[in-house]
Write a structure and sequence with these properties.
Elements: H1 8-23, E1 33-35, H2 40-49, H3 53-61, E2 68-72, E3 83-90, E4 93-102, E5 107-115
Parallel strand pairs: 1-5
Antiparallel strand pairs: 2-3, 3-4, 4-5
Length: 127
């Protein structure tokens, strides 16, 4: 999978860009956001949490550097930007998030938003 750890500064830059995009008055959840709805894991997690895309957007806006785990390439489209992976807690359950910013129109692609399937030892920038 060729995962790697970004510098803290690169993660901060990614999160700043993500938050600017998501909070922009011109951001349209229908046009500028895509959730991988074909994943049964994502679907089940969203049903369990009673979440929709607006809820996911809200959680993405709150991501912190300390939530960062790793960066992974898009194996389906190697020429596209990498995915940043985060872990957060929602209702005492760990959630795995894999997100990327795509294209000239700053499209946000959330590939994964589901219960964590593996336990991580530590996040690289935990406080």
């Amino acid at each position: 999978m060729n995962s790697h750890i970004e510098s803290k500064e690169n993660v901060e830059m990614f999160l700043n860009n993500l938050q600017i995009i998501l909070k922009d008055n011109n951001f349209n959840i229908v046009k500028n956001f895509t959730m991988n709805n074909t994943s049964p894991k994502n679907t089940q997690t969203l049903l369990d949490l009673d979440y929709n895309t607006e809820d996911i957007k809200d959680k993405l806006e709150l991501l912190k550097v300390s939530d960062y785990y790793e960066t992974v390439p898009d194996n389906n489209y190697p020429d596209k930007p990498d995915f940043y992976v985060f872990f957060i807690l929602i209702k005492k359950r760990e959630i795995y998030i894999k997100v990327s910013i795509r294209g000239y129109n700053n499209h946000v692609l959330c590939m994964s938003f589901h219960y964590a399937e593996f336990s991580h030892k530590a996040l690289p920038y935990m406080n």
